Amino acid sequence: MGMKVQLEVSDVAFGGRGVARYEGKVCFLPFVVPGERVTARIVRDKKKFAEAELISVETVSPNRVEPRCPYFGRCGGCAYQHIAYPVQLALKHAQVEQTLKRVGKFAEVPMRPIVASPKEYDYRNRIRVHVQEGVTGFYALGSRSLIDVAQCPIAAPEVNAELAAIRKRSLPDGDYVLSARKRGRFFEQTNDAVSAAMLEVVAQGIGEGQKVLVDAYCGAGLFAKHLRSRFSRVIGIEENAFAVDVARHGAGESESYIAGDVQVHLGEILSAHDPATMTVILDPPAIGVVPRVLDLLLGSRPREVVYVSCNPATLARDLASLASAYELKAITPLDMFPQTAEIEVVAQLVAKV
Asked: Maximum distance among all alpha carbons in the chain?
């Protein structure tokens, strides 16, 4: 094994690993709190950075708390159960700002306060578990071996009831989505309370007089249906046909939902409407927006773009691409996933005159 070292933890980076210095370079290690002095073992020593595993905490931060989950540290799901929740929020807020400055090259970032989750645990309305050779649970930290999980503390009671039920059955190996809504064939936000707050953040950032809403990567129409009363025309684009079927159910006369790729359909929609009264919502997967979509927005310049992201790094990259035509008005982080390293972010942009 590698060498034992004493490290002073200065920060926690996006992704959940603590930051320290080792022989003049950055060293990353998990399950630490800023301000702690720890004993660690170097497990990877690269030219520009090192990685370590925690052995013991010599100086304990007052912000360290006891994790609720007995699997914490072995399960790969949560990264922050050992950190007091207000500190988790502060770390995530800082990580978003730092990422936009470092990756997006923004000198100043118009940060808004982070939106906290009303529930620190028991909030997830859906989880994905794996079954392999009779073991039901989640992948272990840093590997594809399974941790046998009887209950997940961040999952809602209804989801844990489903978990208990499937553990009593003999299921074929595979992945299984357990959902409080009894549906799992397309993506939906996993924290109902923060999802509602996110809808309000998006709504408050939309200006008066907008007539056409384009909800790109619309899923089952979360944003479109919440905002449809403010627009004379609402158009959703989503490649998941199951989600589109749900979105079309109960749609009003002003709504239409297209099953297909955003980069294929967005250009036709943009060219058919006045960009001065158009709002575009982007809610792409973690990989962000493909260059073709960015080019279409830069060419058409709809007045407002709202970008909802679960990955600050790809968000920063895409916002940098839009910066020539758009002013970044506000960045609002939302803690959709307490105890984990994940962050949801809403970015609001307005076309430059």
From this structure: 67
CA atoms within 13 A on the CB side of 131: 15
**Residues 157-179, mean pLDDT to the nearest whole number:** 94
Annotated active-site residue 310? The verdict is yes
How many CA atoms within 13 Å lie on the side-chain side of 96? 29
Give the pLDDT of residue 185: 60
- Tokens 């709190």 identify what position? 33
Q: How many CA atoms lie within 13 A of 259 on its CB side?
A: 10
Give the neighbor-by-neighbor strand order of the sheet with 255-259: 255-259, 233-238, 212-216, 278-282, 304-309, 344-351, 326-334
Residues 267 and 217: beta-carbon distance below 8 Å: no
344 flagged as catalytic: yes
Question: Vertex 237, ends 265 and 205: CA angle to 5°?
Answer: 110
pLDDT digits (tens, 9 = 90+) for 217-236: 999 999 999 999 999 999 99
187 confidence band (pLDDT: 50, 70, 90): low
pLDDT of residue 182: 66
Q: How far is Cα 176 from Cα 173, in angstroms, rounded to an integer? A: 9
Span 207-224, mean pLDDT?
96
Q: Which of 36, 51, 238, 344 is catalytic?
A: 344
Catalytic pick from 27, 69, 152, 310? Answer: 310
